[in-house]
Amino acid sequence: MRGKGPVAIGCAVYLGIAAIFAALKLSAATADPLLSLASVFGFPVAIAADPTDLIALAVLPPSFAAWSACRRRQPPRTRALPPALALAVAALSIVATSGPPQPSVSTIAIDGSGDVYATVESSASGDGVYIADLDAGSWHRLTTAPGRLVADPARRGMLYLVGSQSVPTVHRLTAEGVAPIGPPDPGNRAPAPYGPVVLVVAPWAAGTLLLARNGDVLMSSDDGASWSDLRPPAEVRGLAVSSERGVIYVATTSSLGDGVGWLYRSRDAGVHWTFMETFDIGTFENAMVAVHPDDGRLVFLGTATALRRSTDAGVSFTTVISPREGTNWSWRLRFDPSDPDHFFLVQGFGCCPLLESRDRGLTWSDAGIDATEVAIDPRGNVYVVSGGRDKVLRRVGTEWVDVTYSLPVQRSR
After folding, report:
1. Which residues pair with 320 in a beta bridge?
2. Cβ-based burial of 402 (10 A; exposed 0-12, middle 13-18, buried ≥19)
3. Helix, strand or coil for residue 177?
4. Domain check: are 176 and 216 in the same one?
5. Can you tell me whether residue 373 is helix, strand or coil?
6. Do residues 112 and 82 both lie within one domain?
7. What φ, ψ does residue 70 adopt, rounded to 5°?
8. Which of 36, 150, 352, 379 has the CB geometry, 3.0–4.6 Å to 160, for a possible disulfide?
9. In terms of residue numbers, what domain contains 357?
10. Do 173 and 83 sit in the same domain of this protein?
11. Could you tell me if residue 408 is inside a domain?
12. In 3-state terms, what secondary structure has residue 8?
């Protein structure tokens, strides 16, 4: 193995590493095809373009020299690096970071009247919740409070901000301002590992809320004035409600961390639970449950490896999307209020095309944009947050029009 062949292969490998890293960091245009390729092999990721990260390539020449010396089984001509210098070289290899968090749009939401809201984070003095004035081409900040937006589709100007701290909180956002609505502190109960925080507005009566936090599910029937523990059968990873009064679905996982998930349904607002389905929940324990807002029999289950569909309220499921290898997929499904057959699906973490279905989720097509969030107003207008989380766009015909306007998230690529 001392011929020219191994040297040529080694050079090709090192040059390939440098080329791929440079493509990822120089611009979004060169990074997007590589990120899409990575998602094919089960690595849905989002990477910020940052040319200053190219400094990390400085470690490749000494690495190649060391490899060549080992291949020849001869000691390098220079003396071994002193420990302090070796540590400095190793430290250089991790200099390539994304730096401080970049300004981003974390969520968008649309209330019952069609007003569009967005949450901005990591923008220094610009963090908070904004409302769009699309006619004027601007956004106006409503509050500096952070959190994930959840809109009440039945009430104009009624939104909730959900915090993701170790003890998650919920705030109600109205024209009068922001007010905390609990829920109570869980006390000494240890939080579930990777436990998501999910707030759902139930359609059964105004002010009915369900909150998944720390593996539990809490419910309020008085818009957060009081909360009760529904005591689900296992640690919760996904939560949804049906239009049928009292029907709740939870996707749960074993505390053993074995990647097995279970779907349960309650028909009496959490008093009793019925086992429905087993599924693969994956390494990061992601799971999504979604129920059609008008047809309670149409249920979707997003697992680590597939999107599954049920037309009998969760009794049986068929797989409608099993797109790629890997076991860490994330899904967010949104229904068009103006068309009961029209759905949108966000897959992955900004890596992948927004999917669209016009036949109640049987088949899906590429909507022509990568997105991390999607929201649809009562008239069917579609808004997305871009894959880089630095733009809000609205679909006009077949085009996606930038409506980021004055949101403090613009940054160079």
Report:
1. none
2. exposed
3. strand
4. yes
5. strand
6. no
7. -65, -35
8. 150
9. 104-402
10. no
11. no
12. helix
For the stretch 192-214, pLDDT in tens is: 555 688 999 999 999 999 999 88
Q: Which two tokens stand for residue 385?
A: 């947050």
Residue 379 lies in a domain: yes
Global pTM?
0.76
Instruction: Return the SS3 of 320.
Output: strand
Residues 180 and 320 in one domain: yes
Classify each residue of 267-286 as buried b or exposed e, where b means 16 or more C-beta atoms within 10 Å of its C-beta.
bebbeebeebbebebbeebb
Distance (Å, whole) CA 205 – CA 222: 9
pLDDT at position 91: 44
> Are residue 83 and residue 112 in the same domain, yes or no?
no
Per-residue pLDDT tens over the stretch 37-60: 554 344 444 455 556 667 777 777
181 backbone dihedrals φ, ψ, rounded to 5°: -125, 25
Instruction: Calculate helix-pair angle for 60-72, 4-26, nearest 10 degrees.
Output: 160
Say whether both 145 and 288 belong to one domain.
yes
Q: What is the CATH number of the domain that holds 396?
A: 2.130.10.10
Q: With contact defined as beta carbons under 8 Å apart, do 193 and 236 qualify?
A: no
Q: pLDDT tens-digit profile of 283-339?
A: 655 689 999 999 999 999 999 889 999 999 999 999 999 866 666 788 999 999 999
Residues 158 and 35 in one domain: no
- The answer to whether residue 194 sits within a structural domain is yes
Number of domains in the chain: 2
| Residue 100, token pair as written in the block | 């401080």
Tell whether 412 is covered by a domain.
no
Given its phi and psi angles, is residue 145 left (phi above 0), alpha (psi -120 to 50 degrees) or beta? beta
- Per-residue pLDDT band at 404 (split at 50, 70, 90): very high
